[in-house]
Amino acid sequence: MSKDVPHTFQGSCHCGSVTFEVDSGFGVIACHCQDCQKMHGNFFALLLIEPEQLRMKTDSTVTWYRSSEKVQRSFCSKCGSRLFKKPDDGQKMMISMGLLGPITGLQIRKHVMPESKPDWYELPPVVEN
Ligand SMILES: [Zn+2]
Ligand SMILES: [Zn+2]
Q1: 59, 63, 68, 76 - which has most CB atoms within 10 Å?
Q2: Distance from residue 108's CA to the centre of ligand 1 (Å)
Q3: Ion ligand 2 — residues with CB under 5 Å?
Q4: Distance (Å) from CA 76 to ligand 1 centroid
Q5: Of the bound ligands, which one is closest to the alpha carbon of residue 113?
Q6: Structural domains of the chain in order of their starting residue, each with its CATH number
Q7: First and final CA of the chain: distance in angstroms?
């Protein structure tokens, strides 16, 4: 894996109540599992980061809940935007790509559970580095 050029993005939910800054992380991962389909309306395009790469600016409407045995997810309690996914081991966090600006320079690096995808889309291409 080549080293990512350090880069910082500004992120926000749909209503703007939640704002944060995040470093670029590993790149975009697309999860096609059925949980993500239900929660995100389609596959979940996420930015994989280490928790310290995320710096919250405004977070009073961030609501966490346990979405499965070892994972918590969060959303904005005002607009419903899906925000973060946090496994209990605390090593990594996932951020919804849609919260970041439309121009990121990032590309999909990995597909998770592609076998679970529905039949109405093809897998987007993956960029190795
Ligand atoms: Zn919001
Ligand atoms: Zn998923």
Answers
A1: 76
A2: 25
A3: 31, 33, 36
A4: 5
A5: 2
A6: 8-116 (2.170.150.70)
A7: 6
- Span from the CA of 99 to the centroid of ligand 1 (angstroms): 10
Tell me which residue has tokens 């949980």: 35
How does pLDDT run along the chain (129 residues), one tens digit per residue? 445 455 899 999 999 999 999 998 788 999 999 989 998 999 999 999 999 999 999 999 999 999 989 999 999 999 999 999 999 999 999 999 999 988 888 899 999 999 999 999 999 999 876
